[in-house]
Design a protein that fits this description.
β13 and β14 form a beta hairpin. It is globular, with a radius of gyration of 19 Å. The longest helix is centred in the C-terminal third of the chain and has 27 residues. The protein is of the alpha+beta class. Helices cover 36% and strands 24% of the residues.
């Protein structure tokens, strides 16, 4: 690991001053990705800015018809929040599937979103739920935020403050996990909004998280597993690695989406009756 300076600010204003005054700073949230990459020499910040004492970034609250989640909220906090379980239960379910107990108690939503790992869970939730990423200087829609593998719309010196999720009619997440890391080999998040259905896929796309728009159109007309019959993803647009090939991933997306739609339909029926 290379030498670096370390600071632990206690306010957002001090954090932003430090971030903009250094040539090569990096922000430390949960450290689940950054610290291992620093140990391997793949990341070498001149200044490491620890966000763990900035209380302004921790708040989770209800806002209007949705939820505001501070960038430093731990996965465990989102998973166990009564407000999240009430308004967006699928988001709480997703947070409870991330990693293991240790990871969920250290990892943060802001760190996960900013890293944009192609196998991370949260990006699928943000896309499907039509979330807004609020930085220190602007609001970015999830559709515009995720650019490519490990690449986002964040500018140098810009940091995530919170993520704002609107509530939805119903939603859920299902993933086929890699047994050691528990990352998603394929993960699918389906959300039913008043304006229509959104389906987001993580772990599978060669360019990272993406919306399956053909499935969205089919499910808008008929929210049932049968509506997906005949739909297929192009394997050439899928990832292929030691864990799963591109054809297998394309098939898994279809299978998981169908199972999730069936589960959400059954859940909705139970609520009505």
């Amino acid at each position: 690991m290379n030498k670096f300076d370390y600071v632990r600010p206690t306010t957002l204003a001090a954090t932003l001053d430090l971030l903009r005054a250094s040539d090569e700073p990096m922000l430390l949230a949960g450290g689940q990705t950054l610290l291992p990459t620093m140990k391997q020499g793949l990341a070498a910040p001149e200044l490491l800015i620890d966000l763990n004492a900035v209380s302004e970034l921790v708040e989770l609250s209800v806002t209007g018809d949705g939820i505001r989640v501070g960038a430093m909220c731990r996965h465990a906090t989102v998973a166990t929040s009564g407000a999240v379980r009430d308004k967006i239960p699928g988001l709480a379910e997703l947070a409870g599937m991330i990693g293991d107990v240790q990871v969920r108690n250290r990892g943060t939503i802001g760190g996960s979103v900013a890293n944009n790992d192609p196998a991370a869970d949260y990006p699928a939730a943000l896309l499907a739920l039509d979330a807004t990423i609020r930085t220190d200087s602007r609001d970015i829609s999830a559709d515009e935020f995720f650019v490519d593998l490990f690449e986002t719309a964040l500018e140098p010196g810009e940091m995530i403050r919170e993520v704002v999720f609107p509530s939805c009619r119903s939603c859920g997440y299902l993933k086929f996990r890699q047994p050691a890391s528990r990352f998603a080999i394929v993960g699918v998040f389906v959300a039913r909004h008043r304006q229509g259905v959104r389906v987001a896929v993580t772990g599978a796309g060669s360019a990272g998280v993406f919306r399956w728009t053909e499935a969205e159109a089919a499910l808008d007309g008929n929210f049932a597993q049968q509506a997906l019959t005949g739909l297929a993803l192009d394997p050439q647009q899928m990832l292929s690695d030691i864990h799963a090939g591109d054809t297998y991933r394309a098939h898994l997306v279809q299978v998981l989406t169908g199972r999730l739609v069936e589960a959400l339909g059954a859940r909705s029926l139970r609520v009505r009756t």
